[in-house]
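Q: How would the structure tokens look for this protein?
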Amino acid sequence: MAVHALIVDDSPFVRKIIRHHLTKVGCKVVGEAETAAQAVKLFRDFRPEVVTLDILMPEVDGYDAMRAFREMKKISPEVAVLVVSAVPFDKVRDNFLKEGAIGYIVKPFNQFSFEPVRQKLMRLFREFAA
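A: Here is the predicted structure in token form.
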């Protein structure tokens, strides 16, 4: 069973890179959103197990989106939110991790900075498949 993922980022280029990394670890990307509002709709439609979330987006930012996804965990408790952001501050990262994110990757990233998250996703995938 493939793990379904939703990519949320306002940059098409960044979405393409994230898609590459997620498919490389066995995810099936079921949707891409430029805004948090689009993400919430796609989440309701597809119920992915993994969501990548940018912080700085038009309209609603990643903070509000994270709150919305936390509420949706009541519907889909297995959803794992991975924050991918250009905001490099430890305090911001710590706040998202405290809110339930499984990881925080600072853009720009490469395969080496993505590796710890890949390991965590692989552990989650084994749990989903079980």
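The CA atoms of residues 119 and 130 lie 17 Å apart.

The chain has one domain: 3-129.

Upvote if useful.
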